[in-house]
TrEMBL record:
Residues 38-169 form the DUF5648 domain. Keywords: Signal. InterPro entries: Calcineurin-like_PHP, DUF5648, Metallo-depent_PP-like, STPP_CPPED1. Pfam families: DUF5648 (PF18885), Metallophos (PF00149). Residues 1-27 form the signal peptide. PANTHER family: METALLOPHOSPHOESTERASE, CALCINEURIN SUPERFAMILY, SECRETED PROTEIN. Residues 177-399 form the Calcineurin-like phosphoesterase domain. This is Uncharacterized protein. GO terms for molecular function: hydrolase activity.
Length: 468
């Protein structure tokens, strides 16, 4: 047994000794008792997976045993017996250094696994709010455990075989989403030219920080390029940057800004002599580059097949269900009707809306069509947000730097955030940390290229009333 396990033997033994066995099979699982975070770390060389409630063990395993890939809280369990919960035992194979979690340690012993006496309690099914299935994967005699769709997809891509769900736990209530602002100055048109690394450095930072932030979704508020429909090398740079998210299976959506359409010509200005309200709906190159990659393979729907102007996808995080909806710039009436219908059809999902223009630089809802569209952000609010109580967040860019506004939404409140910046020197990104237990949303702006955090944009909303 590795040394870092021995120091926890007596504490773990005490936990086991205090337990009198699993609860009767007929008891409904009491998942409210699952309040202990289980931390996860991986040994990159052995591909071994460590799960533990002790930060000290994570640190010791990193220092002494090669478990350097620290992944934070994977899920929550109970350390004590409760109705309907079953004991799950950590066993260890001294030959392969593999950890194997099981509800039947006697059976595991037949394959050379030794109980480490660390036991926690989880549910055998998803009744009564035990909302996170913990999947086991195997490869070459080793076993890994995954919760998020991104981690499961990554293991499958690395040729791990899924064994199925081992047990059910509670979700980590704290997670984050990231919102990239207008990146049009980062695709070869600014001082950095084709060597500009800011866009790719930002997405790599998000990929590298996904466990530290418990990052579950990445949005882009539009103007991915400056005039990419007229200059596809800009789309090449954007595409290369987005691959960083795809490589680690992070789901994302790219919202369409006016600079991502044929309404903008070389130099980044509206094309003279053309009908902007028509050309702003034309984005063949953008769709060719990104449509098949939308949401990184996640569940998705579109207003028009093959067109990224109006799309939605779903995900689960923090123990709750979420709907991400990306809307075209200053939308058409039929698009607003479609969006309202999708939101109403999913009343148990917390809704995140992203559209290129919503708040103006002063932090108010913009009331005009910007010279391109057929409606306004105010119309989006009236038709899609105002009467839907499950809308929680609205994100936009297009102008100014950053702003925030709380708006009524069907008896609840939604929070609208602006982030645009158009930085010539760094690469801002908004991070929103969501705590579904505390009903809070904390937001800050980071600029990883220059290693900055801009405290002036920090905010806390403490009465989010997430839909459950």
């Amino acid at each position: 047994m590795p040394g870092f396990l021995k120091q926890y033997f007596f504490l773990a033994f005490a936990l086991v000794f205090a337990s009198t066995g699993s609860a009767p099979a007929w008891s409904a699982p009491d998942c409210s008792t699952m309040n202990t975070p289980i931390l996860q770390s991986v040994n990159p060389a052995l591909q071994s997976n460590l799960l533990t409630p002790w930060q000290e063990e994570i640190d010791s395993a990193a220092r002494d045993n090669g478990f350097t890939d620290k992944r934070g809280t994977a899920f929550l369990v109970s350390m004590n017996q409760a109705d309907g919960l079953v004991p799950v035992t950590r066993t260890y194979h001294p030959g392969t250094h593999d950890f194997f979690w099981t509800t039947n340690p006697q059976s595991a012993a037949a394959y050379g696994y030794q109980p480490t006496t660390l036991v926690f309690y989880a549910s055998p099914d998803n009744a009564s709010g035990c909302d996170v299935p913990v999947y086991r994967f195997n490869k070459n005699g080793m076993h890994r455990y995954a919760v998020t769709p991104a981690d499961q997809a990554q293991l499958k891509a690395d040729n791990w075989t899924a064994d199925g769900v081992v047990f059910w736990a509670r979700a980590n209530p704290k997670f984050s989403i990231a919102i990239m602002p207008d990146t049009q100055m980062e695709v070869g048109v600014d001082g950095g030219g084709k060597d500009d690394k800011r866009f790719a450095q930002r997405t790599q930072w998000l990929a590298d920080s996904r466990y530290t932030l418990n990052l579950q979704y990445v949005l882009h508020s539009g103007d991915v390029t400056n005039w990419g429909e007229r200059d596809t090398p800009q789309l090449d740079m954007a595409s290369e940057a987005i691959k960083r998210l795809e490589q680690v299976k992070l789901p994302y959506v790219l919202t369409v800004g006016n600079h991502d359409t044929r309404a903008v010509c070389a130099g980044g200005s509206a094309c003279p002599g053309e009908k902007a309200w028509e050309t702003v709906r034309q984005l063949p190159a953008f769709n060719r580059y990104f449509n098949a990659r939308f949401s990184n393979g996640g569940v998705a729907g579109q207003f028009a097949a093959g067109d990224l102007s109006n799309v939605y996808s779903t995900f689960e995080a923090g123990g709750l269900k979420w709907l991400v909806m990306s809307l075209e710039l200053w939308p058409r009436a039929e698009v607003l009707t479609w969006a309202d219908g999708i939101i109403k059809s999913m009343p148990t999902r917390n809704v995140i809306i992203v559209t290129h223009s919503f708040l103006n630089s002063g932090g108010a809802i913009r009331a005009d069509n910007g010279g391109y569209g057929v409606s306004s952000p105010a119309t989006i609010y009236e038709k899609v947000i105002k009467y839907n109580p499950n809308v929680r967040f609205v994100f936009s860019g297009h102008e100014g730097n950053a702003a925030r506004l709380v708006v009524p939404a069907g008896g609840n409140n939604a929070v609208a955030y602006l982030q645009a910046f158009h930085s010539a020197t760094t690469n801002p990104v908004r991070i929103v940390e969501i705590d579904t237990d505390a009903n809070t949303a904390t937001s800050f702006i980071a600029a990883p290229y220059t290693n900055e955090t801009w405290d002036q944009y920090w905010s806390l909303d403490s009465n989010m009333k997430y839909v459950r």
